[in-house]
Amino acid sequence: MDSAGEKKEGYLSLEKIIILSSLEGSAEEESLDVTADWSEKEESIDHTVLVQNVEDEAHYYDYHIVYSASYMVPMLYFRGYSSDGKPLSLDVIKRDLPSSSVSLLLESKWTFITQEEHPYLNRPWFKLHPCGTEEWIKLLSESSSSDGCQMPVELYLVSWFSVVGQVVGLKIPREMLI
């Protein structure tokens, strides 16, 4: 709300976050024999070839925090795209998620991450489903305020994001936790 008590709508955004996608320890890697006899007359021959793999490119992510009036909690909307601007599929996004999130996604494929129209941009974005958010935020607020006072909005958002951000691999800067 602003100073006149009027409610403002909108969203918080964190945009163009770069995740360098790579094939971590691929089983297809060949081992190289580096124990060769070299004499001064032999030429060094490089048998490696540089091949750029589309999977190894940078992925960009935009994150928006949007308040859900129906769930009465903040929700994380996000989209991923490649350097040429093409949207990333959920399968590609799964490879960029922390391993703990991928296992949760496999357990609850249709309720953990869903795709729907962004409420302000009217374009398809992925979102983390807000089920359970109210319960764990209530637990956080009870443990942080024993005197029954309501948690300040800033602390609420930091607490919320410290949990939700981990799901997509974002960490809260230490300065925000103090």
What can you see in these coordinates?
- The protein has 178 residues and is of the alpha+beta class.
- The protein has one domain: Yope Regulator, Chain: A (2-Layer Sandwich), CATH 3.30.1460.
- The chain has six helices and five strands.
- A hairpin with a 4-residue loop joins strand 2 and strand 3.
- The two termini are 25 Å apart.
- The relative contact order is 0.14.
- About 15% of the residues have low confidence.
- It comes from Brassica rapa subsp. trilocularis.
- InterPro entries: Atg3/Atg10 (IPR007135).
- This is Ubiquitin-like-conjugating enzyme ATG10.
Short characterization:
The chain has helices at 90-96, 99-107, 109-112, 133-144, 153-168, 174-177; strands spanning 11-20, 58-68, 73-82, 113-117, 124-128. It is α+β, with helices and mostly antiparallel strands.
Count of domains: 1
SSE order, one letter for each helix or strand: EEEHHHEEHHH
Report low-confidence residues grouped into runs of 5 or more. Answer: 23-43, 47-52
Helix content: 25-40%
CATH architecture: 2-Layer Sandwich
Distance between the termini: 25 Å
Strand order of the largest sheet: 1-2-3-5-4
Strand content: 15-25%
Largest sheet: 5 strands, antiparallel
Q: How many whole angstroms does the radius of gyration measure?
A: 23 Å
The counted number of beta strands is 5
Keywords: Autophagy, Transferase, Ubl conjugation pathway
Pfam families: Autophagy_act_C
Organism: Brassica rapa subsp. trilocularis
InterPro entries: Atg3/Atg10
